[in-house]
């Protein structure tokens, strides 16, 4: 009898513990759902926010971009999908199309990201973002040096004290161009990246891994990110005509290119140094940290922002035998004007780049590009500009934003390339929900990211329809 009572008592206690745990789990789930459903963050942090106490919170968001592309001469029957002289094809690019008239017909997932942000102290925050690195090119993880299809994009510890001085450390964007700091989701056009990349975006992976776009075992980052520390802030600067402008600064020391022993140029493991200054003559821009946007759909008022940035790394380009420093200069401009009386918004972006990488000047790059472990950075000049007009009146659930763009690239060691683009966005909810349709003509697509002496490619027509969603 005593044994029976003891077993019954233990069973009751276990059942009560189970009920308590179920109630606890249910309460947590309800709190999570309620937190996500009841609070939507501004653009600084996408997604829903869960508040833990007065200083601690966490948010989660998601973003995806997909497109349909039809490219002249690029159907399988024309042979245009064959690899060109580089033996490598970057996402969204192909090499050396053969003669033919058939169009390709491809659907692609350009980006699929999860955003996680949080605060653990009044002055300490963090960011952890993921990306589907290989979705656009078929999920072949080996192309990106062993990264899985979904992997870490950003991992940042943030020490944010005031507007004047802040520190981010970890894996984060290198503060060079507005284009890079916009990221793919905050460009005004779907295909925002047109001019040659800085090392952290030209590179196919992080340091020490075999890259997708170069043959070097040493690399310099991925998707514009590098491992390092960023210092940034802003302050008001009086202007001669009486108003105050805003000067934003950001500077980063990062790993940059790190070569293997006797392979690649950077044998002394020098670091990469980057600095950017932006002056807002009219209204200040308000973005997370030192990030930027390609425009604000009129929501920020009058914007006139002029920026200059320099990035330098000793022995940051070339091969072990044909090495050189790398220095990149960029000047970019953003102008946005919302017209009075609800007459729409005009946005204009422009960018000029010049890269110095004087490896193998004697043979014009032929020896370096043919040699082993070449981190063959672009050398030369490029520029792009585009204007957009956001029509004020809604059609259905969104507004149309027609635009035009021109890009020119002049390499020192390769053939020139140009592209003309016309299209329209259908803006439903700013950068959170947008459709795009555009036409391109030129040889940027066919010559791609290869800036060596044997780059070839015809001018082709390309049609794209694209979708961007995020929260």
Structure description:
With 471 residues, this protein is mainly beta. It folds into 2 domains: 1-38; 39-470, Porin (Beta Barrel), CATH 2.40.160. 12% of the residues lie in helices and 42% in strands. It is built from 5 helices and 17 strands. The protein has helices spanning 2-38, 178-182, 199-202, 366-370, 444-447, and strands at residues 48-51, 57-71, 106-121, 124-132, 150-160, 166-173, 225-238, 244-254, 272-280, 303-318, 323-338, 345-356, 380-390, 399-411, 417-429, 433-442, 460-470. The protein has a 16-stranded antiparallel barrel. The protein is globular, with a radius of gyration of 25 Å. The N and C termini lie far apart (62 Å). Mean pLDDT is 83; it is low at 1-9, 11-16, 22-45, 79-99, 138-142 and 209-216.
CATH homologous superfamily label of the largest domain: Porin
Which fold name fills CATH's third level, the topology of the largest domain? Answer: Porin
| Sheet with the most strands, sense and barrel status | 16 strands, antiparallel, barrel
CATH architecture of the largest domain: Beta Barrel
Give helix % range.
Answer: 10-25%
Oligomeric state of this protein: single chain
* Overall pLDDT score: 83
